[in-house]
Design brief:
The complex is a heterodimer of chains A (about 270) and B (about 325).
Chain A: H1 2-23, H2 25-28, H3 60-96, H4 98-112, H5 116-127, H6 131-158, H7 161-168, H8 173-209, H9 221-229, H10 237-264
Helix pairs in contact in A: 1-3, 1-10, 3-4, 3-6, 3-8, 3-10, 4-6, 5-6, 6-8, 7-8, 8-9, 8-10, 9-10
Chain B: H1 2-27, H2 33-39, H3 46-56, H4 62-74, H5 88-123, H6 127-142, H7 145-159, H8 175-209, H9 212-219, H10 224-262, H11 267-276, H12 280-308, H13 310-315
Helix pairs in contact in B: 1-12, 5-8, 5-10, 5-11, 5-12, 6-8, 7-8, 7-10, 8-10, 9-10, 10-11, 10-12, 11-12
The chains are: A mainly alpha (about 270), B mainly alpha (about 325).
Chain lengths: ~270, ~325
């Protein structure tokens, strides 16, 4: 137990550090991420520019921080929307069973049948590129995943003795769902949100890399990486650090979700 | 038998749903889809709009549009490219091989390496090792494959300039050149699969090693290697095989991005090119073909699952 909570604290602290540095980007960035300085183009890491400068002389550290912030905003909005939609559908399916369950889960099966990236690209092809369509696309793609993940545990809880007792004393559906079912799902939700956010960051970065996500000149890690690739041999720093930032953010979220799952689920302890 | 019948029914329903969603894609574009398509290349005039609309059948009632489209799809007619007027099936056929080959290589690499790695990890259980393993597998899962690809290109061009790593040559023209060019993208694509599958196999092996039949095998003096590879591994392979099916979805999506990094002329390039020239029928057809293949692969994996594990055939209903 002790070792577990220490690992959880460490991974939580690491995640907090990553999230804070993204959220506080406007305060802690040493430069304006859009300010060009042609005289200081494509510098390597140095005292003034810790991570160097890009092809327009823009400070890479500032761009990475702002880009991380943009990625996190798009990914969190997408995951929040997916959680809301998928969670509602999953709980409804579990609670009402029968026809509701069958119809909802069939629709989810169909959405789930599309490869993630492909459906996201299809949705963006319809809506046009940009940060907002990217968030919508990721939300649609992740909705069936949340619905499936939440339906199972919600079903177990819906059949538990305390839900039966609540119904016996006359509690209504809404009250049972909000007071008894949702609170008991919070740990599942917390773990999955963290893991899905990690995956969403990778999808957002991929879409921006392909030119479908956040549009330049707004700093975004994916676009930085794709621009940096054109100058790879002259000055690799923009490509190196933007990709590293994507990795660190996705890693911090995934590790936290992973450790949290083990801590909350005693059955897995010692097995992984 | 009932398991197979039930899965076949699921398959039909899912394919029907996929066809509806893919069909609606062009129709749900906000604004006038035809005007948007034309705007990419030529002047938008009412005559041109009406012409394209009639060509795509968009002037018909929705239900008859769908029926025409589905009967076309079922007979292998997926429509024609807006600009070249070539059947989209020809465009897809011209781009499918590099993607297919890349996917198969990555899957073989990921699953092939995961087998020995997962078994070794289950054997070498220990505290320090476990922590390194967890960090390693999370890195493997979260490393952006396109970034990994770019970094490998960067390293190779610095240490071995002149080595040809970009582009694609057909296997039958130049087998060695083909494999040399696909090795890096396949590895970039395979790493998350390797991380996921080896971890999964490790915990499945640990589960299997605690079972009674393993204790029995050991008790009657079966050599340890045989216990590991025959008794435990065979049972641990069940979740492994299911996961391989689900991984193909990741592969198809990941290939789109990795192809872009390594300049491989596959389906990813096709669909991105089609999006930038707003060639919606081509986008729609590519999504349909890839998704249907993915669904069919998973159906095949489900069937395989029943073959590996006889218990599934009857027990796993609903």
């Amino acid at each position: 137990m002790k070792r577990h909570s220490l690992v959880l604290q460490l991974s939580g602290a690491f995640l907090a550090l990553v999230l804070l540095s993204a959220l506080l980007a406007p305060l802690i960035s040493p430069f304006d991420p859009l300010a060009q300085n042609i005289m200081a183009r494509m510098r390597g890491p140095e005292l003034a520019h810790w991570l160097g400068t890009d092809q327009f002389g823009r400070d890479i550290l500032s761009r990475v921080l702002y880009g991380l912030r943009a990625s996190l905003i798009v990914s969190s909005a997408a995951v929040a929307l997916a959680l809301l939609l998928g969670g509602t559908l999953g709980v409804m399916a579990a609670y009402y069973r029968g026809l509701t369950d069958r119809i909802v889960m069939r629709v989810m099966d169909v959405l789930f049948a599309f490869p993630v990236m492909l459906l996201a690209i299809g949705i963006i092809a319809m809506l046009g590129p940009g940060a907002m369509p990217t968030a919508i696309a990721i939300a649609v793609v992740y909705t069936p995943i949340f619905a499936r993940l939440i339906r199972g545990p919600a079903m177990v809880i819906a059949e538990s003795d305390y839900v039966l007792s609540a119904r016996a004393v006359g509690a209504g559906d809404m009250r049972i769902i909000t007071r008894h079912i949702l609170p008991n799902l919070s740990s599942v939700i917390l773990v999955q949100t963290s893991l899905m956010l990690s995956a969403a960051i990778l999808v957002e970065a991929s879409l921006s890399f392909l030119g479908l996500g956040t549009q330049p000149p707004e700093p975004s890690l994916g676009t930085m990486l794709s621009e940096g690739r054109n100058f790879l041999l002259l000055s690799p720093w923009s490509a190196v650090f933007s990709g590293l930032a994507i990795l660190i953010a996705a890693f911090a979220l995934n590790l936290f979700g992973d450790v949290l799952r083990d801590t909350l689920d005693p059955r897995l302890r010692g097995n992984r | 038998m009932s398991y197979i019948r039930e899965r076949a029914l699921d398959l039909v329903i899912v394919l029907f749903g996929v066809s509806i969603i893919t069909f609606m894609m062009i129709r749900l574009i906000p604004g006038d889809a035809v005007a948007i398509m034309l705007g990419a290349n030529t002047e938008v005039t009412p005559e041109r709009v009406a012409e394209i609309r009639a060509r795509l059948g968009l002037d018909q009632p929705l239900l008859s549009q769908y029926l025409t489209w589905v009967s076309g799809v079922l007979t292998g007619n997926l429509g024609e490219s807006i600009w070249t007027r070539r059947p989209v099936t020809q465009e897809i056929a011209a781009h499918v091989w590099p993607t297919l080959q890349l996917g198969i290589l990555a899957l073989a690499m990921g699953a092939g390496l995961a087998l020995p790695l997962g078994v070794t990890m289950a054997r070498l259980r220990g505290q320090g090792f476990d922590i390194g393993l967890r960090i390693g597998s999370v890195v493997g899962l979260t490393i952006p494959s396109f970034w990994l690809g770019i970094m490998m290109i960067l390293l190779l061009t610095s240490f071995a300039p002149g080595l040809q790593v970009l582009g694609y040559v057909p296997f039958f023209e130049d087998p060695l050149g083909n494999l040399a060019r696909l090795a890096l993208p396949a590895f970039a694509l395979a790493l998350p699969i390797l991380a996921h599958l080896s971890r999964l196999l490790r915990s499945a092996m640990l589960d299997a090693l605690q079972q009674d039949y393993v204790r029995t095998a050991r008790a009657k003096g079966v050599p340890e290697s045989q216990v590991l590879f025959v008794h435990a591994l065979r049972n641990a392979l069940i979740p492994f095989v299911t996961s391989v099916g689900i991984m193909t979805g990741y592969l198809l999506g990941g290939a789109i991005v990795v192809e872009q990094v390594f300049a491989i002329p596959g389906l990813g390039r096709l669909i991105l090119g089609a999006i930038s020239e707003r060639n919606y029928p081509l986008v729609q057809a590519t999504i349909l073909v890839v998704t249907v293949s993915f669904v069919l692969i998973n159906f095949a994996v489900d069937m395989l699952y029943a073959v590996i594990d006889p218990r599934i055939r009857e027990a796993r209903r609903g």
